[in-house]
Amino acid sequence: MNAIRLLGPGAVECTELPVPSIGPGELLLAMRACGLCGSDLAKIFGKTPLKPPVPLGHELVGVVQAVGEGVQRFAPGDRLAVAHHVPCGRCRYCRHGNDSMCPQFKATNIDPGGFAEFVRIPAMQTAQAAFALPDSLPDDVGIFMEPVACALRAVKRSDVQAGDQIVVVGAGCMGVLVAQAVAVFGARPICVDIRQDRLELARTLGIETTLNVTGSDPCAALRSVADDDGVDGAIFTAVNAPMVEAALGVLRAGGTINLFADAGEAGRMPIDLGLFYRQELSLTATYSATPVELEQAIRLLVSGRIRTAPLISHRFDLSRFAEGARLQREGQATKVLFYAKGAGTA
Asked: CA–CA distance from 283 to each of 157, 235, 249, 255, 322 (Å)?
């Protein structure tokens, strides 16, 4: 079968691998579509060499080809959306609500990754991270189950309530999903970016308040749209020091900053910790989602309350993986989908 393999930093190839064998409780899935995530790009283009094999692809929709002994939830022919990580639910991290820091969560994955013609779904994912899709939900929408789930968890960890005003920094694919999730909670998102085309895309998906901070004082720009007593929170899907400072400048007392992206060197900055004390501000972060949010994400996608179709900018089969990865890394693509050869769209 064709599958994508990471050769080294910045180097991938579409290669031949044997079709995985499955055991008890497992599934063999024929991939129909898999979305490219920013975390995939970080693995591919990161400077630190990763120990092979490196699974790539986790925004997966496929059709069940075979079921292992004991599987009762699914049968051959079922079309599923599947995610890659499963927390144990029992460890110290899970008990404290930090499920995505669970050692089991980090160790689990699908084999050899979603960018393959056939994928082995281990028993834990089969039981907790695989969901049947209704006929009404196309493959191209089903692949958003995992990123929408991550957006939902980010909103939950920000304690967003109905009527809140929430700044969402970054209007790429994840930023627009987070903004829509904020709206699902009955709050008012403010989508901020430096690219007008991305802000226009956000508006087509129902985000009423957008802000282009190119060439302006970002704090003053935020004040121009913030409530008189400030915004209730800010969720960063792109992180840099000037925007964090700007958000702190308009955050109401008791508000929350949530980092939903790796800042790298751009995130190094001095912070006035006294401000956090005097105003009871909170700083948190969100890394991934849990099975609870995965199921909620499917319901929202089916209902149409979160829309995704305009986010898909490019579609390729696996033979053009390197091209698609380059386009998304360079910002020329919002979301790239890959298909097994001949699968097409649903």
From this structure: 10, 10, 14, 9, 37
Residues 254 and 320 occupy one common structural domain: no
Residues 89 and 112 in one domain: yes
Same domain, 63 and 178: no
pTM of the complete model? 0.96
Structural domain includes residue 344 = no
Q: Which residue spans within 68-172 are E strands per DSSP? A: 79-82, 118-121, 130-132, 165-169
Give the total number of structural domains in the chain. 2
The one-letter amino acid code at 138 reads P
Domain residues for the domain of 223 are: 153-285
278 and 196 fall within a common domain: yes
Tell me the one-letter amino acid at 86. Answer: V
Same domain flag for 312 and 247: no
Q: Does residue 171 fall inside a structural domain?
A: yes
Closest CA to 244 of 191, 182, 167: 167
pLDDT tens for the 346 residues of the chain, in order: 999 999 888 889 999 999 999 999 999 999 999 999 999 999 999 887 788 889 999 999 999 999 999 999 999 999 999 999 999 999 999 999 999 999 999 999 999 999 999 999 999 999 999 999 999 999 999 999 999 999 999 999 999 999 999 999 999 999 999 999 999 999 999 999 999 999 999 999 999 999 999 999 999 999 999 999 999 999 999 999 999 999 999 999 999 999 999 987 777 889 899 999 999 999 999 999 999 999 999 999 999 999 999 999 999 999 999 999 999 999 999 999 999 975 543 3
